[in-house]
Amino acid sequence: xxxxxxxxxxxxxxxxxxxxxxxxxxxxxxxxxxxxxxxxxxxxxxxxxxxxxxxxxxxxxxxxxxxxxxxxxxxxxxxxxxxxxxxxxxxxxxxxxxxxxxxxxxxxxxxxxxxxxxxxxxxxxxxxxxxxxxxxxxxxxxxxxxxxxxxxxxxxxxxxxxxxxxxxxxxxxxxxxxxxxxxxxxxxxxxxxxxxxxxxxxxxxxxxxxxxxxxxxxxxxxxxxxxxxxxxxxxxxxxxxxxxxxxxxxxxxxxxxxxxxxxxxxxxxxxxxxxxxxxxxxxxxxxxxxxxxxxxxxxxxxxxxxxxxxxxxxxxxxxxxxxxxxxxxxxxxxxxxxxxxxxxxxxxxxxxxxxxxxxxxxxxxxxxxxxxxxxxxxxxxxxxxxxxxxxxxxxxxxxxxxxxxxxxxxxxxxxxxxxxxxxxxxxxxxxxxxxxxxxxxxxxxxxxxxxxxxxxxxxxxxxxxxxxxxxxxxxxxxxxxxxxxxxxxxxxxxxxxxxxxxxxxxxxxxxxxxxxxxxxxxxxxxxxxxxxxxxxxxxxxxxxxxxxxxxxxxxxxxxxxxxxxxxxxxxxxxxxxxxxxxxxxxxxxxxxxxxxxxxxxxxxxxxxxxxxxxxxxxxxxxxxxxxxxxxxxxxxxxxxxxxxxxxxxxxxxxxxxxxxxxxxxxxxxxxxxxxxxxxxxxxxxxxxxxxxxxxxxxxxxxxxxxxxxxxxxxxxxxxxxxxxxxxxxxx
Length: 731
Known about the structure:
five-stranded antiparallel beta sheet; 23 helices; alpha+beta; disordered N terminus; flat
């Protein structure tokens, strides 16, 4: 590599011995610095290529197993590795050996069923997560709540379940899968209000073929010195991202595994060089002499396009890769269940093929005849054919065949049973209830026993989700410099939009995943348990329908929960009230109270705000900004509002906002008591005969004396002893 300045090679003897001005000397110093930098980059490029070659060679045997696993999953189950005498480009590749035309090669692909069941187990449930506050201070509590809201928004908007399922696909096929999390500053997004935002967190599945580590005996990815993500990209992509002119590389077209899966016999022979090979290197501190604090670099073919030795790019100081393990092996790469199924699957295919061949021989038996008695070419399988033979010789006779022994036929059932035992996927795991088992408890127990062998895998999934969530929150804390609007759903099902920036969650990054929350749950067992609880009266029917995951039930629940949804919307309105509006409302309320004291003489005797002078009916004073309506189900509203007031979000509100909640709940309590008094004053009548429905709160015949005081109802207190309040949301 030569650098020329002012028409002179700075490394030549003439240039070093010439008399120069201070300006020339400064220019040559810059040139020498550039030369040293180019030498450093060239040495680093050689180091990357050396490490990549060494890591790829160290796992050749492991990659061969991955190829075999993938072939069996795809249904190519009569393959074998080509011997070395097959020639360059074919030796070591998977190929299907030739066979006579009469040979049957039956395939009953049990591997795909095993993999689909395994993936369903690992992806059926979303692990529960929560952020642990740094302290009990209000600021830290708000940061923890904001962190949970951000994570829930990212989880939904970035389609993380789909990306996770693709990572789990490689986990169950190869034994190890990865997910990548990074910050893309060039990504353009839009918030809920359509505001343009630059930069976003990105997620992508990474298969084990594209990720390399130096130490195959170290199980933890964070304990590796470096991680290299190698992939191919089109030449135009490299030009657009790095602004340099790149040439297509033949190595890039034949290096990675995609072509090998497209054609197992001649992988890479006819590949066209239309891409470049990208090596993305993430280094921990001390992994390379030029990276004492760690760093990041990217090489494309024979040049270094990114070189950042100032330290890890992200604040969490971890590799942006999350590793999922299937069956531990004691090394970095775990094993797949397919490795245990392959021998059984081969024997199952061989036995089925032999049975089919025997069946074919029985249907079209072999014939014996004296030499010259018949022309064999005249014997076909045509129905009703006349076969002529030479007189004086015996006619063709079917060759007697021995029937297959019974143990050969039983071998198929044994193979299927062996696969079920090896994979721990019995009838209950596949949605089939064993004969004679109908109890929900028994079904749950059998399901749990099948899942118990995967405890280590579930732990890996939960640890992976925890790392994904922590890195996501850390990236947001690091790069969200301006406020962004996120849409979240509260615990009570209410929707909200919050404007946050990264610094708002600086002390809310410690997110934890609940242990055991990734375990699959049987829907049938859960529904049976809920039905038992509803039958015994331990939970209300509306709550049971809410917890059931049955198609069509949601619509029924929505009709029953219309009052609850209305109260949740009121919670959202009250928690978002501006302080200025509250102060103005309070001022007007004080003026109205002074006027009321002058107008109503018996104000002090009536806790509900006095009686109207003309009608004598009790008045409902509008003390809350959010009004109480005559059509409200006051009891449901009181329960929903009190449920929100017991949560952390209410504790972080301003005291003036809390006072609005208190006034609003008191208004509902007084309205409920007033309705009961009105019902008591009415003459008894049969509502069904009159074609009317009882007033809200009087369905069970409760009188005003039986109701607790408004203060106790507003505080969510218990009903009078021996009495039961009407059912919430009863149709």
